[in-house]
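Contributing new complexes? Match this layout with manganese (II) ion.
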Amino acid sequence: MNVDLHSHSIASDGLLTSEEVAARAHAGGVDAWALTDHDEVKGLADARVAAEALGMRFIDGVEISVTWRPDGDTDKRHKSTTIHVVGLRIDPANPTLLAGLKKIRAGRDERAERMARDLEIAGIPGALEGAKKFAVNPELLSRSHFARFLVEAGKARNTHHAFQHFLTEGKPGYVVHQWATLPEALEWIGAAGGVPVVAHPGRYKLSAPQLAQFFDEFKALGGGAIEVMTGSHTLEQYNHFAEVARCYGFMASRGSDYHGPGESRVDPGQLPPLPADLKPVWHDWF
Ligand code: AMP
Ligand code: MN
Ligand code: MN
Ligand code: MN
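Output block (do not edit by hand):
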């Protein structure tokens, strides 16, 4: 069974509509597909209709932005890391989840204003209006939309370069931001009956002991799965996080993290299968 449990639509920072992503997943041979927009569930209803019309199983998902600090450090001036937690098989109408997502979406506007101010100081005016033109969902202004603006404005060759030179830590358009806490994200996903999954664990700039501390906390809060096969991982990371899943007893997930043509390394359904000895997060779903 070809299962792909991580993708984005125009409801967050993807380039395609729910229906178009469904068609891409189907074309990629996907049998069971999840849409997992950042901090938003409004693309799910259309996605389900489109998926089922194409004969695919559909899993309601979301990717929640979390701010996490090692060592239980709560001092906001200290270094924090943004971590993404995917919630799968959520009830998209759950009031606790909806209120939580709405709260973190609300912080995006103010963050975008600070980003635009920093870019203006760095000699790039008009970034807020420019980014907004790319954001189909006005509640979900993302760094990806700023990246597309920077490419359009001729400041970067492609969106990857825009991130590298402007939108990542230490660069002029990057600002620190507080998302949900890890306990909040797991509480919201749990309230909605979903399964929390650590997204692309290989992408975080954490030391090995810090990442181990994160996994311990995630597990202690009831988290039970991590992405092993993701479009963000290298071959070595597939093996490494398969081993992490074994060590912690985590179930494993597989998801391309597809954002649209030209912006994703892997198309839906194209990742290698999970190692046979791992327990797939979907083991009792179908
Ligand atoms: P935001 O939630 O607004 O901070 O945006 C995060 C999104 O930016 C991620 O989900 C990716 O889609 C995208 N992103 C982050 N880092 C990079 C990168 N280095 N290259 C391309 N896209 C990136
Ligand atoms: Mn994204
Ligand atoms: Mn992510
Ligand atoms: Mn994603």
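Reviewers usually confirm one structural detail per submission. For this one: The longest strand covers residues 57-68.
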